[in-house]
Design brief:
Strand content: 25-35%
Number of strands: 11
Structural class: alpha+beta
Helix content: 10-25%
CATH superfamily: Aminohydrolase, N-terminal nucleophile (Ntn) domain
CATH architecture: 4-Layer Sandwich
Strand order of the largest sheet: 9-1-2-10-11
Low-confidence stretches: 131-148
Mean pLDDT: 84
Distance between the termini: 20 Å
Length: about 150
């Protein structure tokens, strides 16, 4: 799975890909951009393309085992995301949310989740949304990669 955390206009996410208990990659890019929309994805990587296609209106009749925080022209999209409050999804989401409740930034929260969730690991990447939280768009956000 993964951990994706949002707090104070910053989205942080890890880069680990697993299959069952096996670590496949620790440097996978989980942020995809298509048609000016950024998708920060968690879950089965084989379902990522189907979720992106469904966002753009493709019919999907099978269960999707993935989710995403999405940045489009209107800002952040992930129900029920409230841009003024911390939010986290993925296998380490509860660890990250607890860390943010205790004062951690989004990036620090993903680092903390890496300590307890075996499906979270590798680099922690961040997307900084310019302007007020929730008002950034793919045209005005920047992606930086690195460790915290």
């Amino acid at each position: 799975m993964t951990t994706i955390a949002y707090k104070d206009g910053v989205i942080a996410y890890d880069s680990r890909i697993t299959r069952d208990t096996e670590i496949l990659y620790d440097d996978f890019q989980k942020c995809r951009e298509e048609k000016g929309v950024k998708f920060i994805l968690a879950g089965k990587t084989s379902h990522y393309a189907r979720l992106v296609a469904a966002y753009f209106g493709a019919a999907e009749s099978r269960d999707l085992h993935c989710s995403a925080i999405i940045i489009d022209a209107d800002g952040l999209w992930k129900s029920p995301l409230i841009s003024e409050k911390p939010y986290a999804i993925g296998s380490g989401g509860l660890h990250a949310l607890t860390a943010m409740d205790m004062g951690a930034t989004a990036a620090e929260a993903v680092e903390m989740a890496k300590k307890r969730d075996t499906c979270t690991g590798g680099l922690v990447r961040t997307i900084n949304l310019n302007g007020a939280a929730g008002n950034g768009s793919s045209a005005t956000s920047s992606v930086t990669a690195g460790t915290v």
